[in-house]
Here is the input.
Amino acid sequence: MPQSRRTICGVMSELVVRLATARDAPALVALVNSAYRGDSSRAGWSTEADLLDGQRIDPEGVIETIGTPDTVILVHEDGGEPAACVQLARSGTDCYLGLLTVEPNTQAAGLGRRLLATAERWAVEHWGVESVHMTVLVQRAELIAWYERRGYVRTGVRKPFPYGDERFGLPKRQDLEFEVLRKELD
Here is the structure.
């Protein structure tokens, strides 16, 4: 499948992606957890290892997400293996975006930016959404700034971290919470 040359927000946006299936669950769990938790995550800049221990996702959660109506995980492969992924969940004309993940050793090379643009375009083309939102830990100032450079706006809406639910990790501090970021799509 050839890559598109269409440009969105000044970057070559289109990546070859496919929809994840339940068979992808083990590889996606390994990819996401390696990018956000533990020592392996420190190879990239997306690590949450200073804030949380434990897992970010588990196979059951990935399979549940893939099986949820109006929810997809887009996968970009390199050499037949998942190298990046992102989750989209539609709600009317809005879409939640989460799990934006790039293999830690290849972060900071533009793949995340391209995957984000590809996911936004996919949501518009397949679902007709007009906006996208996400939640980001407020302690991740550099990540919030990265999304702001891509057109996302801080809403001031805060959501609690799910303390006590080890499926989302083991907090190292008691002040974790999320902020909702939003972007209007063309």
Remarks:
- Helices lie at 25-36, 59-67, 111-127, 141-148.
- The chain has one domain: 7-184.
